[in-house]
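Quick bug: Lipoprotein output formatted oddly.
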Amino acid sequence: MKKRLLGALGFLAVILAGCSTSLTTNKTTYHPTALTAVIKGNAKTKQVTYQVADHAKHQVAVNAGTYFFQVPAAPTDQKVTVTAGHQHKTVTVKATKSLANYQTFAKQYNQMVIGSYLPSKVQKQLQTAQKTQAQTKQKLAALAKRDPAAAATAAKQQQAAAQKLQGQLATAKRQAKDQLLPTTAKNGIHNLISTKDTVVRANVQDKHLMGLALIVPTKQMKTKTGQRHFGTTFALLGSTLKANPQYVIKKFEKVLKDAKSNSSSTKTKTIRSNNIRFNTGFSTDHLYIYMTK
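Here's what came back:
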């Protein structure tokens, strides 16, 4: 009888131990906002473990019985397993649309940034040369048949002009180096550009650019240099995404004005242009603009 009683007590202790590690999630399905989906829940353990699909496991602390962690948005649904003790919960983070192929976006953006460092006259010369390249080649070929000497002279002149443009482009690239995006990016959320005036953060998944964040210290927005860097970066990012930069900036100015009149507000405002969402938010010391689809 004593052995049976001890066995029953042991079985009851196991059951109670299982109950002491209860685990819940606030939802079973999450939709990303900004760059991530925020998974929240309750647990009676010091920490919980989570795993996205078959990727590495991660641990987060439980504070006052609650926990949270972030899962970067991806182009496909993601199964996330949360574990506390012997308890398991599985939730789904829904897929979101990507903004662009990352390498294509970075190339186009960098070209625009470098171009912004060229004098307007040189920009026009470069645009004209690119548009008329095939036509110029045909004209030279025709001239070579009629007058080889004249064609040789014209070719040297064009070569000299092209070398001058390349030199100007190289100078502009050096001047713009701190504002250029890396040509490749690893999976995950990373700062791609980081200066005292602006930070450009991106979520890249399997070469897909899932979202961008432009982060600006509010103190820099009070300086002319900071305003100029912010305005240029914001306009170039929007233009590369095929949004209407003039429209977005006009709407943003109203958001900024409203924020100044109510500095305690942390409510997110959304601006839409060409299917791109620009979500603006404020902290005590930073301005955040998230760009997603």
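Actually, after a second look the formatting is fine. DSSP finds seven helices and 15 strands in the chain. Closing.
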